[in-house]
Amino acid sequence: MSHINNILIRNFRGIKYLSQNFGEEKFIVLIGRGDSGKSTILSAINLALSPSWNIVFSDLDFYMQDTINPIEIEITLTHLPSELLRESKFGLYVINDLSEECNASQLSVVLKLIVDETLEPHWVIKARPGSDIDDKTISAQDRGLLAVNYITDYTDNQFSYNRQSPLYALTKYSLPEGATIERIKSQIIRSMTSSISEQQLEQLNIPFVGLKTTAEKLGLKLTDIYAQVDIKENPYTGNSIALHDQNLPFRLHGKGTKRLMSIAIQTGLTKQGGIVLIDELEQGLEPDRIITLVRILKDTTEGQVFITTHSLNVVLEAEWHNLFVINKGVSTLSLVSQDLDDCRRSNPQAFFAKKVICCEGKTEQGFIRALDSWLFQHYNSNFSAKGIVIVNAGGGNKMYTYAEKLSALGYDACVFADDDKYIELKESKELAISANIPLFLCQEGNCLEAQIFLDFPWNSLTMITTCKQENFINNSINFSDKETNNLGMRLSLEDEKSIRNQLANFASDKRIFKDIPGGEFLGKVVMEVYSDLSEECTLKKNIKNLLTWCDFQI
Amino acid sequence: MVRLPDIIDWKQYLECYRGLLIAPAGHGKTTAIADCLLQCPDQSCHLVLTHTHAGIASLRSKFHQKCVPHDRYQLETITGFAQRLVLSILGSSSLPTEDDATYFDSAINKCYELMQSDVIQLIIKNSYNSIFVDEYQDCTIDQHNMIMSLSDKLPLHLLGDPLQGIFSFESKRLVDFDKDFFFFQRFYLLNYPWRWDKNNIALGKLILQLRKSIEAKLPVILKTNNATNFIIEQYDPNCNQYGPEYLRWLRNIFRKYDSESLLVIYPSYRERNTHGQSLLRGDLSDRIKLKSLIDYTNTFNIVDAIDSSEYYSCAKQIDKYLLNCREGKKIKRIARLYDILENLHTNISSLNKWICKNENRFIPRTKENAQASIQIIALYDEFEHSMNINSLIRLIDYIFNLKDMKCHYKGLYYELRHAANIAATESISLFEAMRMIKNRTRHIGRKIEGRCIGTTLLTKGLEFDTVIIYNAHKFEDSKNFYVAISRACRRLVIITCSSKLEFKD
Fold first, then answer.
1. Bigger pLDDT: A259 vs A525
2. For residue A156, what pLDDT is reported?
3. Chain A partners of B127 at a C-beta cutoff of 8 Å?
4. Which of A85, A96, A131 lies nearest to residue B91, judging by beta carbons?
5. Which of A140, A309, B199, B452 is the most exposed place for a label (fewest CB within 10 A)?
6. In the 8-state DSSP scheme, what is residue A252?
7. Which residues contact A152 (CB under 8 A, 6 or more apart)?
8. Residues 6+ positions from B491 with CB-CB distance below 8 Å
9. CB contact, 8 Å: B128 with chain A?
10. Comparison of pLDDT for B406 and A120, the residue scoring more
């Protein structure tokens, strides 16, 4: 029984300092890119609350392997087992505000694990701030009452009945009065010994006749020697009694099956209020199983579940308040706001990205996709290699708000959008600018296609107007002769501009490019003439700056 | 002989949410608590509070003897409990310093305030199934309030005897059994005089009879009853109490009734001296004076309060002496050493043979004392040289053990020496070391046994084979008198001027 309210980690593995409050949240999904410290958080919790007393630490567990600063893991716990809240145990160590109303589950203590350069771990409950008493050691047995279990793929012992295994804990509660697992074990050993028949061992006795004579010659009188099983130590320790299915011990089952089984056991335990830690929940599980599992876990009512994940399905299925984003080197986790729900549901991949390009709509999204293909063709690299994810904000001012929110979560976000509603969106735009979000926008008043028509090399405009069906399947891409007849002609800049405007208006009125294929088509043709674009034009500048932001040296 | 039952059924008392058990001295209150605990369900834990460290010691040994499981109870003094709670939760900054006279009152009041918190109530409720408080008659009204708030959500079992509700002159008003227990169901424990069961049943009955006349507010008539070992030694109030005749008579009494387990009780009372000042009698110096009169073999112990201020003032005095010496202040070092020795209650007449205070020097002795005299000066030189506590204690030690030196208050000296050891090893002041020792004693409790000179207040709850009451006619109230007589198991000797005692209450 216990609930983690807050964690504070110092100098542990990749984390120099991290402090995070989880409040009453019962299902915590830690997301973040690889190496950001998700699993380190689970390990920290597990080490601090673990009931084992012989944990071995090494210099590698210290931040930067520097043992001068001790490892400190502080966990603020609520929903504590009443045994621990006795005055004789840690009742006087509660940190609650005395003037506030309080119920038993809110009583809260801080457990602290310290490892200094001696590598010797110490577990204590911290004294109240200002109190005259010292921190008090908490024994492994008392830590066991906190019922923490860490599910990884490395421990097959979880399917056996040793004292630390969750199966042991689960079984203990269900045994009838008087029965204990130890008693069952000793019954097994007794019946094993008595079931060995002497006949089975008889053949081993054959050489004993000669042996007896030799021994007697040496002066050793033997009366009755025979071979028998010598039970030096209990062969049925907890580890050798294990869970089986269809005659196969569970440790030999598939990864996914094992994972689900151990989660099932844990779920049984969380009903009694334990804390379950699962590293990479999705491992070995099919998407549908992941979804079912998350649905069950997010409804956790007793106990608390911490998971790490790289699975889009988890991010999709979890609720906004379940999600905590970790970024390497930061001192606190970032909380996902409810406002991002649409973004998350439509672009869950953004939550695993390094950089996010927030596109205004489908045209922009298609355009960037074309840019991605172009990069792959010409430079054998692409966005995903750089951890860049494209998000379609779906219009309005959302590309700005998404970018801000994602940026607040620690992602590098930029906006790629037109600027045709510049008066309406002035405020949102300014907010994004003040949040230092790079904006790659068309000139004020222009949508993307308009900007393209304006900046496209005059002589190549027919590439758009006369595109073939196989390049861009849109039957309505029929510009009237009035505009297209003059294309390619030598005209004054003013006349060119007027035709460019007419084309832009036409395309935008007919909504020719307002979908992903439309955007992709535009992107493709723009990149074909990329080198011909004037260095001064907005289109070229935007693409160039965007690529630089994405860390491509073109 | 009437056999007392082996065990009393406490079901009704235990089931009662607010119960008050009234039990005269010696009627097995301690046994009752032990039996109650034994009759409580397994897995339950009860807070048992009492007032004195002596009370703790006797409850603990009773629990041990009756095999009460250790996890069934938490045993503490009321102030100790309050102090522990307050220090744990609020820290020492919430209380005055320990040598402050208001220290324990503040602890009680702070603890009362703590009890108003939901958080603390939850911890208490979670820790204990019920609360027992022994010697409830000794509770001040503040302590009573604290205990009532402590047991806000728990059953409360009080034990006490209104007739033993004695208090020192400094203490606050005590609970009133007639007014303060409105909601309590009362139980009486009168039929089991355990204290006299195996010793002197007749004496027990006699003391119970005296109790009845006290309860009825009648004067107490004292008359020797040899058969029950109830002895009255009367003297003429007009005799010269410094004259050899009186002293011979007095010493003879102590010789005649000597016992391995002997308590001499000196009454506490106020008396006007010749200048009309009101003086407190029966204090430490009075008891030491009595000891010097009767105790030739030096076998009596002076019973003092654990926190007797002398411990702290002596420690402070030595700390200051050391500091002054180290800082090279111009003080008369040998004269000040003399003051320290005087405060340790060495006999002045002997001390004057070794140190001349006025001239700030040691007196060179001759003949068989010559060697000792040289040794004292050598030790003093050593102290002058090192200026540390160890060398000072070695010097004092040597003077103490001189042949003609006598100390009538060895307890103080032993504690100081113990504190000096700690002070030297822990590099702290003697005062701090003394505080450490006293805190420890407070928690562990101490045993008072053998031949003792004490007051009713300091020996309440204890029992001795023989009790000699010195000047019984000086008792101001009947309660102190009752506490004094009920300490005796086998023999009670009352020294008095008058065979009829009338009390002011």
1. A525
2. 64
3. 85-88, 91
4. A131
5. A140
6. G
7. A279
8. B200, B203, B229, B230, B231, B257, B259, B465, B466, B467
9. yes
10. A120
Residue B307, token pair as written in the block: 């926190």
Cβ A221 vs Cβ A172: under 8 Å: no
DSSP structural state of residue A242: B
Amino acid at A537: C
- Written as one letter, the residue type at A492 is S
> Is the confidence at residue A17, as pLDDT, over 80?
yes
Closest residue on chain A to B128 (Cα): A86
> Across the interface, which of B92, B122, B124 has its CB nearest the CB of A102?
B122
**Contact assessment for residue A355 and residue A386, using Cβ atoms and an 8 Å cutoff:** yes
In terms of CA atoms, which chain B residue is nearest residue A107? B119
What does the pLDDT read at residue A221? 80
Q: b/e for B373-398, b at 16 or more Cβ within 10 A?
A: beebeebbebbeeeebbebbbebbeb
Q: Which residues in chain B show pLDDT less than 70?
A: 1-6, 168-171, 443, 445
Interfacial A residues in 237-256 facing B (CB < 8 Å): none
Cα–Cα distance measured from residue A95 to residue A110, given in angstroms and rounded to the nearest whole number: 8
Asked if A91 and B92 come within 8 Å (Cβ–Cβ), the reply is no
Stretch A99-103: mean pLDDT: 92
d(CA B278, CA B478): 21
* Centroid of chain to Cα A369: 26
* CA R_g for chain B: 25
Query: Does residue B50 contact residue B62 with C-beta atoms inside 8 Å?
Result: no
Contact: A131, B89; criterion CB under 8 Å = yes
Distance in angstroms (rounded) separating the CA atoms of residues B245 and B240: 8
- For the record, the structure tokens of B132 come out as 């027992």
Q: Which residues does chain A have within 8 Å of residue B120's beta carbon, measured at their own beta carbons?
A: 98
Say how far apart CA B72 and CA B130 lie, in whole Å: 11
Using DSSP, state whether A143 is helix, strand or coil.
Answer: helix
Residue A196 or residue B478, greater confidence: B478
User: Quick one: closest CA in B to A88, which residue?
Assistant: B127
A422 to each of A399, A429, A441, A538, how far by Cα in Å?
A: 13, 8, 10, 16
Q: What does the block give as tokens for B129?
A: 């199934």
Residue B5: partners with Cβ closer than 8 Å, 6 or more residues away: B192
**Nearest CA-CA partner of B347 in B280, B410, B266, B434:** B410
Q: Please tell me the predicted confidence (pLDDT) of residue A236.
A: 57
Detail the DSSP E strand segments found in B111-248.
130-133, 156-160, 185-188, 220-221, 230-234
Residue with tokens 């970790």: A326
* SS3 (DSSP) at B10: coil
Find the closest chain B residue to A95 by CA distance.
B89
Confidence of residue A469 (pLDDT cuts 50, 70, 90): low
Judge whether A100 and B118 are in contact, CB under 8 Å. yes
Convert B403-444 into a string of H (helix), E (strand) and C (coil). CCCCECCHHHHHHHHHHHHHHHHHCCCHHHHHHHHHHHHHHH
Beta bridge partners of A72: A10, A114
Q: What is the DSSP letter of A498?
A: H
Q: Do residues B208 and B161 lie in contact, with contact meaning Cβ atoms separated by under 8 Å? A: no
Residue A392: how many CB atoms within 10 A of its CB? 24
Structure-token pair, residue A294: 């998350």
Contact status of A85 with chain B (Cβ, < 8 Å):
yes
Lowest mean pLDDT segment, chosen from A27-41, A202-216, A373-387: A202-216
Mean pLDDT of A499-525: 88
**What is the C-alpha to C-alpha distance for residues A250 and A259, in angstroms, rounded to an integer?**
10
CA dihedral A108, A114, A120, A122 (to 10 degrees): -20
Q: CB pairs below 8 Å between A and B: how many?
A: 67
Whether the predicted pLDDT of A187 surpasses 60: yes
Q: Is the dihedral of CA B365, B367, B369, B371 positive or negative?
A: positive
